[in-house]
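Retry 2 of 3 after timeout on previous attempt. Resubmitting structure tokens to design endpoint.
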């Protein structure tokens, strides 16, 4: 069984990491933009951003995947399974990340904003050089938790026939008829991936904490 399972599962792990890392990077960029729009209270855009966050957080990720992959083709928009999976995960995680970043920026003392603006910095410059670096330090635990959750959420893209870890596990089970050890193996791999990212989180937190104390 091991000879059959390991290569297939490792391929699945590769896809799982592809989905998780790609969606996290894109989600951070989109989430930061959404957080800025809401903090700046840009007319109309801030309301649309709030609606987007509410919709993404208020509906199941599985439904969002179905809408993007199975629903959009009915209106002429069609994606490959990998693209659809990354898009769904990105849109979903960006909503959560935007709230983490918005809360972190709101947690920066008001005096920091006043000091930056009094030095002649514009609003965007104040955010870029003063507020955002402090907010990132505050947001690291929440951002890391989102990444760990995202690794587990990648299992849902198996419903659109992407051979990530969960789908790979099912494929091997169909050949070996040994579901228990294979599902336990998949669970162990998810656990190892999550534990590895937890260690990365702790190292980043320590480095940011040391940099902040200087």
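Retry 2 succeeded. Sequence:
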């Amino acid at each position: 069984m091991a000879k059959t399972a390991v290569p297939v599962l490792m391929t699945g792990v590769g896809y799982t990491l592809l989905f998780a890392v790609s969606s996290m990077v894109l989600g951070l960029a989109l989430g930061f933009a959404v957080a800025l729009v809401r903090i700046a209270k840009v007319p109309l855009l801030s309301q649309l951003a709030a609606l987007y966050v509410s919709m993404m957080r208020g509906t199941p990720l599985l439904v969002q995947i179905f809408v993007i992959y199975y629903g959009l083709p009915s209106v002429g928009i069609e994606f490959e399974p990998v693209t659809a999976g990354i898009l769904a995960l990105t849109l979903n995680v960006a909503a959560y990340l935007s709230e983490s970043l918005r809360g972190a920026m709101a947690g920066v003392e008001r005096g920091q904003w006043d000091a930056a603006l009094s030095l002649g910095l514009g609003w965007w410059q104040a955010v870029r050089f003063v507020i955002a670096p402090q907010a990132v330090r505050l947001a690291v635990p929440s951002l890391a938790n989102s990444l760990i959750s995202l690794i587990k959420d990648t299992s849902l893209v198996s419903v659109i026939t992407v051979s990530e870890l969960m789908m790979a596990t099912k494929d091997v089970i169909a050949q070996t008829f040994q579901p228990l050890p294979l599902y336990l193996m998949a669970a162990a791999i998810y656990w190892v991936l999550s534990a590895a990212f937890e260690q990365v989180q702790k190292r980043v937190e320590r480095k940011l904490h040391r940099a902040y104390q200087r």
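Attempt log closed. The mean pLDDT is 88.
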